[in-house]
Amino acid sequence: MSAQNLEAFLAKLYVDSQARSRFLADPRREALNAGLNEDDCAALEKIDFVGLELAADSFARKRAACPPRKPVWNFTRWLKRR
Amino acid sequence: MNDRFGIGWRPELAAGILSNLDCIDIVEVIADDYCGAPRPKRRALRTLATQVPVALHGVTLGMASAIAIDSKRLEQTARLVEEIQPEFWSEHLAFVRAGGLEIGHLAAPPRTEATVEGAARNLTAAKKIVGAMPLVENVATLIDPPASKLSEADWTSEILAAANSALLLDLHNLYANSVNFGFDPYDFINRMPHEKIHAIHLAGGRWIKATTDDRRLLDDHLHDVPDSVYELLKYVGQRTFRPLTVILERDGRYPPIEMLLNQLDRARDALRGGRAKLSEAA
Question: Which of A71, B48, B135, B217 has its CA 20 to 30 A from that of A24?
Answer without folding.
Answer: B217
